[in-house]
Every structure is written in structure tokens, then in C-alpha cells.
Write a structure and sequence with these properties.
About 25% of the residues lie in helices and about 30% in strands. It is built from ten helices and 23 strands.
Length: about 425
């Protein structure tokens, strides 16, 4: 288990194993902890959750929990990203989601964009703190990775590093399992639980009152039908409520990262939407089809991995096909419409800084009522997931939808096509 040792000798544990233990008798909790100890380490800290469950944090090494220590330093916001450059090549990354440490690790700076991209598919409002040369920015003009504004509560660039002087807390120091069990936090009825009980009682009283109170006489009124004028841009609004193209591509990168964890297998092809051979799935409801190819892995390993991740698993003549849900959310309805040609010009000027050469193929634009659709294809040739993230950012804010993609993998690099349609007047 990795440990970061500060110049003053203080040890911080990163990448600890965390598991939520359901509310039950203390004796059963202790038994479950003893079973988990065998694989996850002899050092433990237990945290009582508001709902009465326990969060158990295990490590093979002793020391202070880095993620929780950083979270407490910043007054425990619900969602937090902290990233500090330790040197030119490595950085500390701490991510808290919904009040729980999701990630605390020492990460190569070259991998940070992939880590940031994996967070986009979730709905969180992050307080972000960075120090040093980190590829994360508040605005696109600064360069680097940029989160959507609706995911950022605050963005602070620190003038001094935090890690060398980060205050420690004894309550966040890992203990030998036996000692941690003796200090097992006791459960009390949580305020949330008491509030729920109170609301149920009030609801019952109100329901009884509604049943037995005298009913008021019903007056019938006739309302003339309201005829609304037809919206000439209804089709445009409908298309623009579909998932944003950058979200679709960030989702793709996240899936590539997940699939790379299958022992002895790699994703040889990833396709979605029209490119997957099914219906147009630009509404984000269709699955992503993945062709997995073995490089020494067994079918049993692949099946077990699919079962653990609750994925549909099919054996094909080419290997194994997996079907992953595309977890995408719709956009808010647009309040303005722009010219399709302006959108194409903006996109082309952005993409030339990411992909060099003739990588974008323009199709024939088509007019449908009051709107114009202009399809285009992005051709990828041996690019890394980080480049796909940059392609996603070049589409941010544009009136565009992705109708499908298909990419193949060779040696960790990806080639293929992304089909996009720009929409406007």
C-alpha cells in the first residue's frame, strides 16, 4: 500500500481500501472486519456514517489517511478536488464525492487529464484547489482540462504547497485492527432518522384530516382551448436537449479506462450509436458495444469480471462482446440558436490545435424546415485517451450532437471515427 513520507517523517497512507458496512449488530460488524482484514491490511479506521452504517478504511501500512486529512483541512465540503504538484512528474490528487473520499493517490502528471475526465460523468459540484504546474484550469483560455461551470462551486489556485505543512489529526491515524475495534464508534439515532420519523407522523395526521374533512362544492367552468403558435425551432430545441458531445466522449474515455482493468483482455473495438449497427442512440439510451480480445486471459476471468460489473456478456467468433450502459444526461433546453456555418468555423479552428492534418471530413449539409444540419466525421489515428479528452473539449458549448463512434485499439492507442452533426440556421 503506497505511503507518502514527508520531510519531517510524517507518513500519509494513500489508496487505502474503503468499504461501507451496513448497519447491524456490533458483533457482526467486528466479524465482517476480521474477514476483510485478511486481504486488505492490519491497520484500520472506522467512521460512523449519518445513516448508522460504518465506513471501514484498511491499509497494509500505518500512517495518517491523506484523503480525509486534506478533506478536513478544507472544512469537509461535500465535493472536493485537491491537486498538488510534488515535482515536475508527480502530483497528489484527492477527490471527495458526496462527503466520502473517492480517491487519494500519488499520480503521474501525465495521467492527470485522464483522472479529471473520469469525473465528468458524475453530477457533483466541486470545490477545486490546485497548486503548481497542474493541467487543470478554470477557463479554456488558460489551457489544460476545464470542468463545466455547473460542476464547479469554486476554483482556487494556491500560492504555497499544502502537503509539507498539512496538519495531522489523531482521529485520522490508522490503528491496528484490534485497537480500532475497541474504539468502535457507537450508534445513536441520527437527526436525519428522527426527521424522517417526524415527517411520517405529520403525514399520517394530515392524511386522516384530508379523508374526513367536509368536501367543498365543485364548480364546473368551461375553458376555451388555447391554441399555441407552432414553434419553428422545436426540432432544434429537441436535438439540443440530447447529451452534449463532450459528455459522450468523456464517457467513452471512462469506459476505456474501466475495460483496461480486465486481466488478460483488452478492448479491441468500442462502438456506440449508429456506428454500433443499431439504432441512432444519440439520446444516450443505447448501450456501448465493446469487442474484447484476449492476450492470455480466460473466458472464466472475463465472465467473472462482467458479472461483478453487472454487464451483459456474449461469446462471439471474434472473442467476447460486452454491452455497457451509456450513462449520459440530457442538456438544458437552449435559449438561442446560431448559424451552422459559424459553429463549423469555431470547431475547425479549435480542432486544428488538437489533431493535425486532414482529420475532419465535412458532409453535405441538409435543411429541415427552419434548421440546417451539417454532418462531419472526425478521423482518429493512433491517439491516446488524453487526446480524445481534448477533442471532447473542442466541442464544448457548440450546437452539436454525436450520432455514433467506432474506435479500435492497438497498443493502448486508438483509431477510428466519430460522427457528429452540427445544428443551427
Amino acid at each position: 500500500m503506497p505511503v507518502l513520507i514527508r520531510d519531517d517523517g510524517v507518513e500519509f497512507v494513500v489508496r487505502a481500501y474503503r468499504e461501507l458496512l451496513a448497519a447491524k449488530k456490533s458483533s457482526l460488524v467486528k466479524r465482517e472486519i476480521q474477514l476483510l482484514q485478511h486481504n486488505n491490511g492490519d491497520y484500520l479506521r472506522l467512521f460512523l456514517q449519518p445513516d448508522g452504517d460504518y465506513e471501514a478504511v484498511f491499509s497494509h501500512e500505518e500512517g495518517y489517511l491523506l484523503g480525509e486529512t486534506v478533506w478536513h483541512y478544507f472544512d469537509r465540503p461535500d465535493d472536493l478536488i485537491y491537486c498538488e504538484a510534488l515535482d515536475d512528474d508527480t502530483a497528489i490528487l484527492v477527490v471527495v464525492r458526496a462527503g466520502n473520499v473517492f480517491l487519494d493517490a500519488q499520480v503521474p502528471v501525465a495521467n492527470l487529464i485522464d483522472e479529471f475526465a473520469s469525473l465528468v460523468a458524475n453530477v457533483n459540484l466541486y470545490n477545486i484547489y490546485v497548486y503548481g504546474s497542474i493541467p487543470l484550469s478554470e477557463t479554456e483560455e488558460e489551457g489544460g482540462f476545464v470542468f463545466d461551470q455547473d460542476m464547479v462551486a469554486s476554483f482556487t489556485r494556491l500560492e504555497e504547497p499544502l502537503f509539507p505543512t498539512l496538519p495531522t489529526m489523531e482521529a485520522l491515524r490508522l490503528l491496528p485492527v484490534a485497537e480500532a475495534l475497541r474504539a468502535l464508534p457507537s450508534r445513536r439515532a441520527s437527526p436525519v432518522f428522527m426527521l424522517i420519523i417526524g415527517m411520517l407522523i405529520i403525514g399520517v395526521i394530515w392524511g386522516v384530516y384530508e379523508v374526513f374533512k367536509p368536501s367543498a362544492p365543485v364548480q364546473q367552468t368551461t375553458v376555451a382551448p388555447l391554441i399555441k403558435p407552432k414553434d419553428p425551432y422545436a426540432a432544434y430545441r429537441s436535438l439540443m436537449e440530447q447529451p452534449a458531445p463532450e459528455q459522450v466522449l468523456i464517457d467513452m474515455v471512462g469506459k476505456l479506462k474501466l475495460l483496461s482493468t480486465v486481466p488478460g483482455w483488452y478492448p479491441s473495438n468500442l462502438s456506440w450509436g449508429a456506428a454500433s449497427g443499431g439504432n441512432n442512440n444519440s439520446t444516450g439510451t443505447g448501450p456501448v458495444r465493446v469487442q474484447m480480445t484476449s492476450f492470455g486471459g480466460t473466458l472464466a476471468v472475463m465472465r467473472d469480471w462482467a458479472d461483478v460489473n453487472q454487464l451483459k456478456f456474449d461469446i462471439t467468433g471474434e472473442g467476447v462482446a460486452l454491452y455497457l450502459p451509456a450513462k449520459l444526461k440530457e442538456r438544458s433546453a437552449p435559449t438561442a440558436i446560431e448559424k451552422t456555418q459559424d459553429a463549423v468555423i469555431t470547431f475547425m479552428s479549435r480542432i486544428q490545435h488538437v489533431l493535425h492534418g486532414k482529420t475532419v471530413q465535412l458532409g453535405n449539409k441538409e435543411t429541415q424546415g427552419s434548421i440546417t444540419l451539417w454532418p462531419l466525421t472526425i478521423n482518429l489515428s493512433s491517439v491516446s485517451p488524453s487526446v480524445i479528452v481534448l477533442v471532447a473539449q473542442s466541442l464544448r458549448g457548440l450546437p452539436a450532437i454525436i450520432t455514433g463512434y467506432s474506435v479500435t485499439s492497438t497498443g493502448g492507442l486508438y483509431s477510428g471515427q466519430i460522427s457528429i452533426t452540427l445544428v443551427g440556421t
